[in-house]
Design a protein that fits this description.
It is found in: Plastid. Residues 72-294 form the Plastid lipid-associated protein/fibrillin conserved domain. Residues 19-53 are annotated as: Disordered. This is Plastid lipid-associated protein/fibrillin conserved domain-containing protein. 28% of the residues lie in helices and 26% in strands. The protein is built from 9 helices and 11 strands. It has helices spanning 3-10, 69-82, 92-107, 115-118, 136-143, 149-164, 245-250, 257-263, 316-328, and strands at 22-23, 33-34, 120-127, 169-177, 181-191, 204-220, 226-238, 255-256, 272-278, 282-286, 292-299. An 8-stranded antiparallel β-barrel has the order 3-4-5-6-7-9-10-11, surrounded by 5 helices. A two-stranded antiparallel ribbon has the order 1-2. Helix 2 packs antiparallel against helix 3. The relative contact order is 0.17.
């Protein structure tokens, strides 16, 4: 299956058990078994975000059911994902179908997942929880909470956070994994001048929330999953189109999460992010609560997005040009 086919299937979206024994984490090769670090909580239901996308390609699913099991499962998985708005459409039967197919695909893995398998740029195509929890910042937040009531309160807080930010539209959500770091890019758009009775001026504030965590340990679970032990670094906003603000952000304004964590009377959180399946097209990952994340590979490049092509002009020149062209045509 070609990568263009994978993205074409995802473009049809209308809006954007328990863990087994694990191996001790080391910086290089998998090591002997260790015990589970935390237990699972039940997934909650979530509000659908205002995600949107367009169909730019034609869906091509010519491969038949007689192909290898993994290819057939991937094709079925992508079709289900494309109808689920990245898991945020609150369709229980669709999300359950994705979970079931992903579990079957995990079972087809021919060998243990390695760090080489997961290097590159990966676009999030499905998430069984809120999309922003794919960021190591939010994983670290969860890791500070004990299982049970504290975890339930954290889940509730995340749900309220998403409801409070429903005015924003979520764009690309990706992870970039290199030898020693995991970078999360979470692109958002919000109306610059919202109006009182629906709609807004056609000016949008753009930005990408970029969270960087170092990979402190690499381990292998008993089932062959790759485990990445993460240590949260910093959070910054890149690609802002706000004049003045963009210059300050590009000058190095960022939140040093590691320094903040050191200043608080808590143990430094080191969440474990498991990669349970990976090939050159699809990656399946799970966090400490076994929430499901399915990624489609963009490329093998491990360089974070520069966002140099985003002008800090709030889109005003483009709007004026569009108005003049419309009037003169």
């Amino acid at each position: 299956m070609h990568r263009s086919q994978l993205f074409a299937l995802l473009a049809t979206a209308s809006a954007f058990a328990p863990p087994r024994g694990h191996a001790a984490l080391t910086r290089s090769a998998p090591s002997p078994q260790r015990t589970t670090r935390r237990s699972m909580d039940e997934d909650a239901t979530y509000e659908a975000p205002s995600d949107s996308t367009t169909i730019d390609d034609v869906i091509d699913v010519e491969q038949g059911a007689d192909d290898r099991d993994a290819d057939a499962l991937k094709r079925e998985l992508l079709i289900k994902m494309s109808a689920s708005a990245r898991g945020q459409a609150k369709s229980e039967y669709l999300n359950d179908d994705v979970e079931e197919i992903a579990s079957r695909l995990e079972a087809t893995r021919p060998s243990a997942v390695s760090l080489d398998d997961v290097r590159g740029r990966w676009s999030l195509g499905f998430c069984s929880t809120q999309l922003f929890r794919s960021s190591p910042f939010w994983m670290a937040g969860r890791a500070t909470c004990k299982d049970g009531k504290e975890a339930e309160r954290y889940d509730w807080f995340c749900e309220m956070h998403r409801k409070a930010t429903m005015v924003s539209e979520i764009g690309a959500v990706r992870q970039i994994i290199s030898e020693d770091a995991l970078v999360s890019e979470f692109e958002t758009t919000v109306a610059a001048l919202p109006m009182r009775v629906g709609g807004a001026m056609p000016l949008n504030v753009l930005g990408s929330i970029v969270s960087t965590a170092s990979i402190e340990g690499v381990g292998s679970a008993a089932d062959g999953s790759l485990e990445l032990e993460l240590l949260m670094g910093d959070v910054e906003v890149k690609g802002s189109n706000l004049p003045g603000i963009r210059q300050a952000l590009d000058a190095g304004a960022k939140l040093d999460s590691r320094a903040l964590s050191d200043a608080l009377p808590i143990d430094t959180p080191r969440p474990v992010f498991a990669c349970t399946y990976a090939d050159d097209e699809i990656r399946i990952s799970r966090d400490g609560d076994r929430n499901l994340y399915v990624y489609v590979k963009e490329s093998g490049d491990t360089t974070p997005t520069a966002y140099d092509d985003v002008a800090a002009d709030l889109g005003i020149p483009a709007l004026v040009s569009g108005v003049l062209n419309a009037i003169s045509s």
